[in-house]
Amino acid sequence: SFEFDPRDPGRLLLGWQRKDLVALDLGVWEQGRLTRVDEGVLPGSARFLAPDSRRIAYVVVVPERQGVHVAELAR
């Protein structure tokens, strides 16, 4: 799955299916490069956060790390 950054159309939030869980691994595609963010993410839960899309909020379903997480993105 993918979602365009609403503030930067050259940036994508990507999720790809895991084989061991009903979950996604999460990354950001920008300028031809993929940066991995996290793994074991609930499908449909990841979002760029306002006002500048420098953070992503998402839900992790891995039992040891369950809960809402926020990742800071380098700019």
Give me some keywords for this one:
4-stranded antiparallel sheet, 3-stranded antiparallel sheet, 0% helix, single chain, 75 residues, mainly beta
Number of strands: 7
Uncertain ranges: none
Helical proportion, percent range: under 10%
Beta-strand proportion: over 45%
Mean pLDDT: 94
Shape from CA axes?
globular
Q: Give the helix tally.
A: 0
Radius of gyration: 12 Å
How would you describe this protein?
It is a single chain. With 75 residues, this protein is mostly beta strands. The protein is built from no helices and 7 strands. A 4-stranded antiparallel β-sheet has the order 1-2-3-4, with no helix packed on it. β5 and β6 (55-60) form a beta hairpin. The radius of gyration is 12 Å and the shape is globular. It starts with a strand and ends with a strand. The model has no long low-confidence stretch (mean pLDDT 94).
In terms of topology, how is this protein built?
Elements: E1 2-5, E2 8-17, E3 24-30, E4 33-41, E5 47-48, E6 55-60, E7 67-72
Short account of what is shown:
The protein is mainly β and 75 residues long.
